[in-house]
């Protein structure tokens, strides 16, 4: 069957010739002969089609391809076969037979005898080749492969070959000569998001525009609506690997420093911090709300002799902010620790922890960072081996010297934060620094005032370069302080801040039975990833983001 | 001043002698003389008291003790001093000067010249001795120490000595001869819970009862109401260290097996699993609820090519169960992974993960386990290097052979679970085993049926010994399964289970774009700790437990 043209195509050709004929007496006879010829051709074509169909049914290689029926995917047997991860497909496997499972990333038929199938697995891609050949690959098998819908899950068995010239468009520089191919799960033919479209960088769009080409741009909302497709892009897989590394390094570092991981309740009776909006709910007839931070409970753990604690868990903010950096639910990385003398002990932990984390990401996660960078280019974060510390007043002075007037007892607004980031970058060559001794008035009631100037506080914020290129911006990423550990003083501070002390009495009472001086800090996991990678939207670093308008998927 | 008796004591002695006097003429004169003597004595006493007061004010050692004023605890300075952790106070520090910070665990004055102060830090205790001596320790200093309320935070500077006989009642076998002592934070004198009372084992109560003594028993509710005191007991510190180790080992093991840690939203639009009660809330005008498990989202991560994922996070159950093993909020350890052929791949992970975890706890956490065991005695968990796997039918057969009739297509009730645990322990000598191929009808709708018997499913539960001694009980601790990955079949299964498919359409839709066969499991962190340590109540292993009646602290 290998090189026979389709009989219906031949018939169509005959029909086309027919329509051009001119009727005459002589021609009529000729026509009759022609009609007879056509009839015979049609008969032959029908016979050939029947023969082809019979041959297709009887394809001796028919068991080497096809859709796997569900029953065979219901844990029918353990065959003992091993699937080679695509990442391990290297030249050293040349001539070896391998079994792989991946997604049909791209399917391209070349004539009827050849199909190229690019498989994808966790960001790795490999080209699989089906070429019709006697006893190995039938034409029907090639046709089956070429009919696979993109994103289908496919098992391929074949032999590894190493082409003489580099393969463009796949991560792996080997090919698989396919011997068997089975579809495990067929994707819908019409994808709401094409992975290739969703993977394009801004530079690709610009190049296409310059050459008059048109590329499909996938909007943020479409991405989030079809997040199961969107997160398949190499950049997104990279982002969530980096997120995993950040929280893992956070834990690893703190465990080595004698911290204990705790889990505090998210369902609480009062509002966890005064002021901000909380999500309220009914708890078995009692009014309750979702914790806006583990602040009170992590401090209670310190009063409970845990010494040093940390938590990784969701925090909930019912704020109406619809910005690039706010979410209604995010992952908080929280730390609280006894301090012996000075809140600088907390800043020391922040310093060493984040420098160790950034070092780790740069040293061990280049593959993931590159995957992100290919779609969303960014420069490596500039940070110092020992993090720069400026007092709030020093920061204000730098801004004043640059001609910006700042309220000495107010907070920095976004604009002045960014300007200060720029000044710090110019002067100290770092995009990561701490600002401490904030005005007391702009910090939460439980913040310890300075011993010498009660209008200031033993508190700090940490800034990191903001999104975008060039990154002249600077955003607050970590907030921390020494806490008030004296119950009477804490009550007084709460009152002074307009908080109804009776609503937080169990919190205040927890300091009545001896409380060590202590401090801590909190940071949002999604923000660390966003700003380390200079991404422009926190929705890119939250797996299933929640904002005032989005509660699904 | 060192060895002078108090002048008021001398005056009192004189008074006492006076009352015994008999009045007579001769005696009257004598009496007058005596009165004059007394007057002189009183004068002398007053003068001495004045002198003493002056001396107290002028105590040349006055700067060596006292309450630290708040201003000195507001990060006034970094002195560069180092505090030695109590845990490191060993004989090798003999004759060295150390600075320590801890709680006043116990204070005992012996006469006026000596005070013993036991300091406690993270479960370690050390005896500090104050003996009046010229130029080192004044009587006022001893008095100050003896007046410290229990649980106050205290800084002590002193010299390490090694007594010739073992010290009873402290973990550290050295003493500190105090040179300086400062109170950092004074505890309220009346403690709602005495740490010693809260630390007693059942055996201590029994011994006290036998000898007619009476000990204060601290009830569960009192403990939870004053959790900041309750968690200071050695057993509780041990429990939360073990909890930290369990979740850390869980992560460490899975990261090495190529799993990615994810964070899925707790605020969701529908109910995460049909049936059970959920906490409902208003989300910016939309009806929302708290996730009862990360089930759907972790599966979506698998559809998003993450391959293998895990999550450690809160799960919420609005159930009204008021049992020893249910909480309204607990920490879920969740796993989801692609499977190539068989749900046994998931069971393999469970097996290796938990055996590695138990090995780690037994090998590296003996100190913490001993601290728990001293208050709540338990035998080491019996488990096999390769976890026993029985099919549900095999389990039913074992029960039937023991004379217990079981519905072959129903679930095991608590009683039969416990009986089976006992039979398994007797036959296989393990308190940790898996039961798989459960009846389909008793599993969630997304569970994959068996290929050969559709009334059964590719699911499993893992059982561990229950609470109490002797531990004949057995409790379900882990639940897992292969999931249905075919959207049409999933819809049909949901409908068959009475679920309104439209409420879970985004979940079902996530399988339409190619979905690898996959499975996973979930386990409650608090239950693992509770049952590994054979504790009798899950409230003991939750830092701030939430049950239908408890929303604070």
TrEMBL record, chains A, B:
EC number, UniProt record: 6.1.1.12
Biological process annotations from GO: aspartyl-tRNA aminoacylation
Gene3D superfamilies reported for this sequence: Bira Bifunctional Protein, Domain 2, Nucleic acid-binding proteins
Organism of origin: Colocasia esculenta
Family: Belongs to the class-II aminoacyl-tRNA synthetase family. Type 2 subfamily.
Name this polypeptide is given: aspartate--tRNA ligase
Any Pfam family matching the protein: tRNA-synt_2
InterPro entries, per database record: Aa-tRNA-synt_II, aa-tRNA-synth_II, aa-tRNA-synth_II/BPL/LPL, Asp-tRNA_synthase_2, Asp/Asn-tRNA-synth_IIb, NA-bd_OB-fold, NA-bd_OB_tRNA
Compartments where found: Cytoplasm
